Amino acid sequence: MTTPGGATAIPGKKAINFLPSLRRLLRRLRPHRFQVGVVMLLATLSVVFSVASPKIMGHATNIIFDGMIGRQLPEGLTKDQAVEALRAEGQNTFADMVSGMNVVPGSGIDWTALGQVLVLVLVLFLLASGFAWLQAYLLNNIVQGTVRQLRADVEAKLHRLPLRYFDTTQRGEVLSRVTNDIDNVSQTVSQTVNQLLTAVLTVIGILGMMLWISPLLSLIAILTVPASIAVTTFVAKRSQKHFVAQWQSTGLLNAHIEESYTGHDIVQAFGRQDAVRATFDERNGRLYDSGFKAQFISGLIQPAVMFLGNLNYVAIAVVGGMRVASGTMSLGDVQAFIQYSRQFTQPITQVSSMMNLMQSGVASAERVFELLDEDEQAPDPEPAATPMTNRGLVEFQDVSFRYKEDTPLIDDMNLIVRPGQMIAIVGPTGAGKTTLVNLIMRFYEVDAGRILLDGVDISKMTRDDLRSRMGMVLQDTWLFGGTIRDNIAYGRPGATEDEIVAAARVSHVDRFVRTLPKGYDTVIDEEGNNISAGEKQLITIARAFLSDPSILILDEATSSVDTRTEVLVQHATAALRSDRTSFVIAHRLSTVRDADVILVMKDGSIVEQGSHSRLLEMDGAYAELYHSQFAGPAQVQT
């Protein structure tokens, strides 16, 4: 992060609070409580029908097995007589198995009963699938609606954050949270909520069926659960810090990419490709390391849980086979139980395999929540004050301000700027020139004192009301992808074509627009590379003129235009200055010679003020600046 002083700070690497962040993420589903209830009902019905199917399929297995065994027994005997005959022949194990079966000696498979069972199973499968599809459809709507609201909340939050936040945070880091992290949250919620809900209900339903069939085998199956939870918890704790580092590294890498490609021309001009590439490689390598460790360590969960599940399967198969042989369980029940045991471990394995995705998603969610929890700019007062006039009288009364508590910048400033005056603000870099304008616009709040606009404290006004009375042109031009007409009209939506053209003419945009094949319909690309820097600056000036403000603020607005255009813009500014207060921040003193008052700032204080000629006569700080620009080069010895 870049501080106002230019220093770079790295985002804090605090440990993630997994469960609180997960609960906060799930709480965002609250507006959809009714739909969530319907989803849970549908999921329950789907699980009930799915869980009932193996038990019924076990009955079909019993019908087939009973028929095959019954065909081997003498016809005409009862089951008890057949068992006694087997024991008399010394076939005690076979006799024990037959005693636990529902056989009719001499008869084969009951195909009618088997067909009825299979039809019933087919109906259950269809119902379970239908409810599962409807549940997934509704849940997807809920999840996507929740993520859409999260995006909307982040967008609204960005508009409520003070300028200080954007001055101290890299744009790439902000963009990473708004795009990458929210997309990761969306993917995580979409893929895990449905599976987690189904998994929990499935485990509960299957556990009930297993206890019904055989408490002994259920105990064996349940023994793997604590072991699976212990393995999952052990691995998750060690992988979570790497997921946090992964997304922090993603933000830093995005910030570097955005910065280096935005200034690609500068990088090329100064031959800094190797340095940029080295920084990229270092941050890319850091992302690779954290991403590899996060995925590798969390990826150990699934095979470990699968291993425990396979041990459980072997134990159930052995014990179940022994109970079938002893006649205490039917073959169909053992088959159903084995199927249940596989289904019982499957949700646990599934949840375990989702842990890496969940950890990554919750890490991203916490980064988004950190943005949502940032301190906002002070709310507008209610009721708000509104100046009765729109003259542009600005007064500074004992104003103090500092970016850092221990670094004073502006102390006890007093200033009166009368309507129609052109006030030039000059001074060395860091003197507080732009800060002065930021305070007028309430991009920053004063620490002490107050600023009045037409007699009203600007802190008592709404920001929209205050800024609607001002037009601002910065040194760094900003144009969006659209036509020249749209970019000019951005200053006042709903402006007519004649008003747009009039603003373009007075700012000398019209003269170069007429030379373009599509005129005002010429589309400016996102970077504005299809027009010159000076032409972009003129468009921003036209935008400010169209807004018809009572106060004009020009922060090095003519720095990108040529000398001839600069003179034209100065004439246009002079024409528009009637009944308007103008603040002009300039390093090139040639642009402010005709200012009514020139303020010379140094270390946050106004050290001199007066007209151009008066300040030269004083032979002070302004005269030193002036001579350094115009007289200095002539004194250089060759």
TrEMBL record:
Pfam families reported in the protein's UniProt record: ABC_membrane (PF00664), ABC_tran (PF00005)
SMART domains per record: AAA (SM00382)
CDD domains cross-referenced by the UniProt entry: ABC_6TM_Tm288_like (cd18547), ABCC_Glucan_exporter_like (cd03254)
Record's subcellular location: Cell membrane
Residues covered by the ABC transmembrane type-1 domain: 38-360
Superkingdom as given in the UniProt entry: Bacteria
Keywords: ATP-binding, Membrane, Nucleotide-binding, Transmembrane, Transmembrane helix
Transmembrane spans: 34-52, 113-134, 196-213, 219-236
Domain ABC transporter: from-to ranges: 394-628
Membrane topology: Multi-pass membrane protein
GO molecular-function term, one example from the UniProt record: ATP binding
Name listed for the protein in its UniProt record: ABC transporter ATP-binding protein
